[in-house]
Each structure stands twice: as structure tokens, then as C-alpha cells.
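hi support,

uploading two proteins for the ticket. first:
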Amino acid sequence: MAASIGMKARSADSRKIWYESFVGAHWSHKFQKFMDKIRTFDHRNDKYLEQVKDPDTGQTVHYCSEPLSEHVGHGSAKNKK
């Protein structure tokens, strides 16, 4: 069974999200199976972390840890062709 959990944190005085996290199984189109994924966005500390592992071998197939301000050109922020 593939399970996952996600969360978002907001400040009490603001509706702005300052922390987002996802942990669990995520479908990989590239590998055609569920992979173990950890992803966090920490806006207060300007940090981004993403790690994807193959659950069968335990091998890390993707790892990215960088300042969130440098994490551009991904998802909907990609340049259109």
C-alpha cells in the first residue's frame, strides 16, 4: 500500500504559508512505480530539500538541497517553449 502525508504551517498572525512538507510514496512516471519521497519548503529559513529513493533497493535516485530562493525554473515556473 502506498501512503503519504503532507502538511502546511501558517503563522497565527498571517495566512501566509511559511513551511510545507511531504513525506511518503509518490508515483514516478520515469520509473513507473511508487518511490519514497521527502520534500520540504522552509520559507523562513530559505531552504528547499527533496530526496527520492527507490523503495526496493534503498538507492537515492534524486537529491536536492539548496536555498529556496535559488530553486527556480521548476513546476509551473518552467520557461514555456
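and the second one:
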Amino acid sequence: MQLALALAAIASCGVLAAQQPNFENVQIQVLPVQGNVYMLAGAGGNITVQVGKEGVLMVDTEYAPLAPKILSEIRKLSNGPIRYIINTHVHPDHVGGNDAFAALIPQNPLQPLKIIAHQNVLNRMTTPAGRETPQPQPGLPEDEYSTRFKDIHFNGEAVFIYHEPRAHTDGDSVILFRGSDVVSTGDIFTPGGYPFLDLERGGSVQGEIAALNHIVELTVPAHTQEGGTYVIPGHGRICDEADVVEYRDMLVIVRDRIRELIKKGMTLDQVKAAKPTRDYDTEYVSRNSFVTADRFVEAVYKSLSEHK
């Protein structure tokens, strides 16, 4: 109940798109990436699934009503226990299914389900009552970390969970599956649209660029810059290093343009009128885009203005 209330509060602040899909009509697509890793795409953020002899690890859970469909597809990949859920950040289209999966999965006291996230995710999903911290609730990350990274060894490979400070939010995690050579980015990287800089939840343009630079450092291209490390974005298609570099470069160029306009004393409305994203809008804006060009410019402007 506490998790549902917390997610409802987050959604009411405009984190979700204006209209959620009809979940009954949603089909879950399963795409092999490489190694032990798969991508599941439905109505919310992409889900990363790693399978092996020890069981199943999930990155993000989409929306609660989709949990039975998602679990059905996971069972086609593995009948092993779901041992880990890693949340990349707090937004409901990525963590909304946490409690549903906790309820659907039979719990083994010897191999309990662990939900991992950065401490800031848990902080934003819970509100202490007076001086007492609430008791653990199903679906809340109880295995939170507050260090630069956390690592586990599962299904024969090292899995690194890196905190990316003040990027898309203040609780973003990027996950590297070292053996499979796959990186799961959450909404730091969304190749089909401009990034959503959630300033209310600690996001910033400088942190977003730093996070994208780190993802580039984690990825290694194969011959002729194709393939190599594969990247599962928060939304959209499977990518590689070249796609992340292109996205990072776009953001750096737009950041620099807006920073120069701010130095000239231009107001937000004047900067919007100057259209500093004009040459990128055809690639990153569509009719159904959650982040419009104006919204993106406004977020970058406000983020830069905080640090003048």
C-alpha cells in the first residue's frame, strides 16, 4: 500500500505521460541481446533480464498490471527463481511492477528476492512517519546502496551497479553485465527522444552528460564501430556505443548553445524562441514525445541557471 501511494504521488507530479496505455492490449516483446541477457519491451520502460543456473535477475519492472504478462515471458526463458530486481530510478514506469512481482513470486527464505536501488530511490519512495522509519513493504528496495557502485556475482558473471549522480534523477543506476558485455542505462539514455531531466528529483544537464560519458567509457565497439558492447536504453531500441556517443554529442551541443544564450542575458522565453534544438528536433521529437523541444530547452536552461 505504501509503495502504491508513493508511486501515485510521483505520477501526480507529471512523471508519467499524460495517458497510460490500455494494458489489456499491451504485448510484451522479448529480444535476445547477447550472452545471458534479454530485453523485454512493453508499455513502460524497457526491462533487462539476465538468466542462468542461479535464477533470474531483472532490471526494472514496468507497470504493475503488466506483471503477469512479463512473468509469463520470463518463464519462457527460465523456470529459475527471480532472485534480484534492480531499479534504475524512481519513476513509476520502471518501478511500478515491484510490488506485483513481490506478490507473484513464491518466496524462499534461503533465496529471498532482493530489490536493489540507490538509496535516493528508496528515500523518494518512502516517507518516515514522525521519527520512525516505516517497516519494509513489498516492492520497496530493501537492498539499497549509497556508494559509488555496488557489485554482485550472479549466473557466472560480474554485475556492476553504478550510481550516476544528478543525471536523469538523483538516484540513477547504470548496470554493466561484464560477461555478457551489455549495459542497461535506464532513462539516462533514450535514443528516440530528448532526455527527461527531472529537476524536481535531482536531475541536471551536467550530471546527465557525465553519466553518458561514463556509459561511453563502459562500452567497447567491435570492428568498424558496430556491435561490441550492447546498450539497453530506458526506452527504445537496442543500441551500441556509437548511438550513445551521438546522443551525448547532441546534448553537449545543445547545452553549449543554451549556455551561450544565457551569458547574453536572454530570458527563458527568448531562448525558446531562438530554437537551439532546431536541427535535432526531427530526430528526437515526434507527435507522441513525452519531452518536447520546448520542455527540453526549459530543463537545460533551468539546470544551467542553478549553477550560474
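thanks. also noticed: The chain has one domain: 2-305.
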